[in-house]
Amino acid sequence: MGLYLGLDCSTQSLTAIVVEIEGHTRRVVFNRSLNFDRDFPEYGTTGGVISGADGEVQAPPAMWADALDRMLGELAQSADLDLDDLRAISGSAQQHGSVYLNARAPSVWGALDPSAHLAPQLAPIFSRPRSPVWLDASTAQQCREIEDALGGADRVATLTGSPACERFTGPQIRRFAIEQPGAYAETARVHLVSSFLASLVAGRDAPIDPGDGSGMNLMNLRNATWSPEALDATAPDLAARLPPIVPSWEIFGTLSPYWQKRYALPAAAIVPWTGDNPSSLIGTGIIHDRVAAVSLGTSDTVFALTTTPAASSSHVFRSPTGDFMNLVCFRNGSLAREWVRMEYGKDWDAVAAILESSPGNDGWLMLPWLEIESTPRIAHAGLRRFGFDRGDAARNIRGLIEGQMMAIANHAAAVSGTIDRVIATGGAAVNRAILQVMANVFGVDVYRLDVENSAALGAALRAYHADRLAAGEPVSWKTVVSGFTEPQPGHRVWPNPKLVAMYADLRRDYAILETLHKDRAPIC
Ligand code: XUL
Q: 329 alpha carbon to ligand 1 midpoint, in Å?
């Protein structure tokens, strides 16, 4: 029996999925999540992060290490698993966030005491105790400076796959280097969240994979190497501070002696970690043209695999298959949905009933920018209501969720010219009423997959792919995902043709409102 572990460190939680693959047996045998706020209250996070002044949003990397420790402990105690069969481990993490380590890190994680918890032992390695994460929007000035140095936003997008973005790693590093030059000088290594956790698992400095590397504004998208001119435009001596970039499937180590001794785990192979979106690409089985995935998580994202990057997409990343993926990211995802539900005192069943009772919100629209938004770029947070006020619970709830779905569908045109089918994933995908709105707004079938956390599943499947490749028995991506990502008939949601026509009109109105209001402050 072969067991493969995939971990996903998202904004709010750490998830572990183990798949068993042998012959025709393909099943998920372990699936558990730890929630940062609930299970690690001592770190004082809200939604997994700590917000500061001037758009700063950070998280303590020690919390992620703590969660990793507890999760591997729980895995080791799982009576149903024979972990001697654990062959390979990979993972994914929220993209763009960065972890700053001093020169002591390699000696510390190479000599950890297996009888003691991980997080306290890591205290001496951080040159910056908190990591800026993807929600951080404090780097507008650094984005402008990087774009000026590299010849403008289009040039940065052509070179790195995205224009300079506030949440991307390069602008974040630049702000740190300029504002805290002493701490930057002490920084020997800048990791992504993904490569930091991969380092902890392997007990050695991990590489960055091209999928997550493309979310940094530092990597040459075409050849997946650090771009010297992007590095120069960002911070001094950055090349020496970045890990190497290696192919997503290149095994770089084994589970460290710390974990082997601490939890009696085997020396499983460690496969580079990637970003949650590239990992979800695998975990949703997006290996075909004309299929887009919509991930409804802390961020909402829509993405699709492509062999030729689209100039119109807001972001082009490398995919773990070695191809490319187009992606659009919306900052106002589950936290905005949760907010509107709580604000009007409803449970999710009541929200579903409201969505079903009057699709189209009687023509009234909302621009759902509860927080500042990344698509389109909205600097002034605040809901924009058209035709109703904040007292009307049903119209606010419908307005927000329908608005989100219209925004996703309108911007999805940039990731894939033709979309015949949508695969929905992420926490909110379990809500059938939301998927019905999505199907009607997109005008195509929407499928939900059995496994909710497609990023963790994708990581486990990537571990399997890399393990077979290293064994000289390569497996096609189609085979890798089969048995795990086929849409189940019971999870299919069909569009209603009459509502599709109505939403087509509303989508046009929504697009006009979005254009008219994106540079204006909220009025109500
Ligand atoms: C993508 C993005 C988010 C994070 C959080 O560009 O910023 O989707 O990866 O999950």
A: 7
